[in-house]
Amino acid sequence: MSRRERLFWTLASVGLAVLIVMAVVKISEMRLVPxxxxxxxxxxxxxxxKGLTTGNLAQMFLATIWHMVIGLSLAACLGVGLGAMIGxxxxxxxxxxxxxxxxxPFPSSAIIPVTIAFFGLTxxxxxxxxxxxxxxxxxxxxxxxxxxxxxxxxxxxxxxxLSRRSAMMKIAxxxxxxxxxxxxxxxxxxxxxxxxxxxxxxxxxxxxxxxLLAARSFxxxxxxxxxxxxxxxxxxxxxxxxxxERRLLRWRS
Amino acid sequence: MKAQRRRLGFNWRGxxxxxxxxxxxxxxAMASTIERDAFAAPSAVLAAAIRTLHSGAALRAxxxxxxxxxxxxxxxxxIGLIGGIPLGLFRRAxxxxxxxxxxxxxxxxxxxxxxxxLIFGFGYAMEIAVVxxxxxxxxxxxxxxxxxxxxxxxxxxxxALGLGLIARVTKIVLPAILPRIxxxxxxxxxxxxxxxxxxxxxxxxxxxxxxxxxxxxxxxPDLMFALLLWIGLTGWSLNALLLRAExxxxxxxx
Amino acid sequence: MxxxxxxxxPVLAASGVSLDLGDTAVLRDIDLVVxxxxxxxxxxxxxxxxxxxxxxxxxxxxxxxxxxxxxxYPVRRPRSDIAFVFQDYGRALLPWRNAAxxxxxxxxxxxxxxxxxxxxxxxxxxxxxxxGHAEKxxxxxxxxxxxRLQIARCLAQEPSVLLxxxxxxxxxxxxxxxxxxxxxxxxxxxxxxxxxxTHDLDEAIYLGDRVLGLxxxxxxIGETVAVRLxxxxxxxxxxxxxxxxxxxxxLHDFIGTVQSDRxxx
Lengths: 253, 254, 265
Hints:
Order of helices and strands of chain A: HHHHHHHHHH
Largest interface: A-B, 58 and 55 residues
Low-confidence stretches of chain A: none
Strand order of the largest sheet of chain C: 6-7-8-3-9-10
Oligomer: heterotrimer
Structural class of chain A: mainly alpha
Structural class of chain C: alpha/beta
Shape of chain C: globular
Strand content of chain C: 15-25%
Number of strands of chain A: 0
Number of domains of chain A: 2
Shape of chain A: globular
CATH topology of the largest domain in chain C: Rossmann fold
Number of helices of chain A: 10
Mean pLDDT of chain C: 88
CATH class of the largest domain in chain C: Alpha Beta
Low-confidence stretches of chain C: 1-7
Helix content of chain C: 25-40%
Number of domains of chain C: 2
CATH architecture of the largest domain in chain C: 3-Layer(aba) Sandwich
Distance between the termini of chain A: 22 Å
Order of helices and strands of chain C: EEEHEEEHHHHEHEHEEHH
CATH superfamily of the largest domain in chain C: P-loop containing nucleotide triphosphate hydrolases
CATH superfamily of the largest domain in chain A: MetI-like
Largest sheet of chain C: 6 strands, mixed
CATH class of the largest domain in chain A: Mainly Alpha
């Protein structure tokens, strides 16, 4: 498809989206669907604006982002650090990989009751859950990245007499970067999911809690507004991540 | 270099960590009086597991989770497939749908839990809806890429034979993507289970997730851990089953 | 066969070296001495242990019997005096670093301070004919240029011995010839010794002062030939020299006997 054609269809796509929104407006006007389930888009927009300006939506929005960032950063540090150590040591792998492989299939949300048991319904519990859930994909991807370092580069590092630390930082780490970033991408998705779930359960500040409260009081427009904001977080975080990844992996064709 | 160590048939070292861990937890549980709210000896966990399986409670909860996950999976799978095929075949249609679909993609499925709760209230419907939504996206993407990955010669053959659209889809496209669709199904099953359990822990009073929450709230850590292990086992065995079927049916084609 | 000349000023030596990898005997009773400034070529069929021998000399492998020594001292691990040029240059260069940074890696390993590196890198890139390409990533360079870059990185170690493992095998004939001459020039200028492994007889005779034939399984040095051709070598005249032709025939026969022995077995 030529550039011009692609542009045409993209614009048509935007047009389609607009049409869909207009159709929804019409549907709710004609009360085909009960407005408690699908309020008119104008009301959703109004609720969004109101919530962001005078309401507490902005605060909730930032709170969720904060939880995500903290949990993910923790997971990234631990995941890459441990992953590097385990990935570069055959001995460590022999002892640890079976356990790690055993733990891998467990859904991170199932850990939630356990963390609640240990930490109660606190901020710590939530961050622990987010960190644990995001840690997993990052750790496994990092290990894989370090294990699969090009053997010729290992030869080169030995022939040049690089210290173990130098070899790890200058050769293994950059080589493993694509894998690490792939794991982080999944970790990012998990962080958002678990932050939301954590907020729903603990009732702490965040979009998860805002959504649950709106649902309980049947404030559907606020509910949709919150969902939109969660989508925005998802979208923006992916965008930023793509940017960063492209920059770090510029050397790949 | 040290001479290559002879590979033992089985990696005994892998067992060291779990055994040491289990043993120390058991000893701590026996010796100390740490708060038993969160802490359970492995032996107690095993006992609780046997108890709950024997009483049928675990199995009942498992069936609830599996029914909802399965129904949501089927629903989302069919929708994702039906959506993915035309968009995989026709580049223009795909471009056309891009903006609406990409707007939906970033929304995490868990965000729909409160909405689903509002519409359906507690129960099966609510959970099935969330699972279906969670599964549609990945299935859709995997179907689309499976179709894009069809050997171009096959498509040419269908044109040369003058097959109509329906015939082309049923006789050529579907069989060609069948192995990949199976893989997509297996992956989606994993997602469905995780989402189902998440919904149960968060909001919905049925299934294994809810059972775990109840165990935690009623201060029965042994039961809680037993259920956790059971959830892991269920997910793992279902995945293993499908993997076995995959290699049986498709061998190297998958 | 003219006997090998007594090695004057030995720099690198292998005495009674044998190598077993797992259950396989790879090399047996290898005795070899490399003199300062000498170019020693090792030829042999694939799988006879040429690469393993080179890795032993580099300190990347430990012999099962015998010893490797550099200037009299035992070689137990790689040393900066001994540089290794790998055949698969694409995999031996860091794809995320540009040409200058790749050369820099060797300087970093030796501990050259950051400020001094820039000038050295410039000189080295110039020496291998890569000036102007300092900012390019390996994937933006042709095969020949990548190999030159690897050589530049090895030269950054200021080695006394350059070990080269079929370095030009993956390149086209023209590039190969150009690099052969460049390598000889670089070695002559820096008085470095070269141990050059190849399966190409012509290349071995063209480059070497001595050619060792490695053959059999496990590999042994079967034939040693002194190459008394005038230096500097020239791609046209040297190859037409009757002595060159005689040496090629002799080595060819040696390889031929080895092959037929192998088939007869």
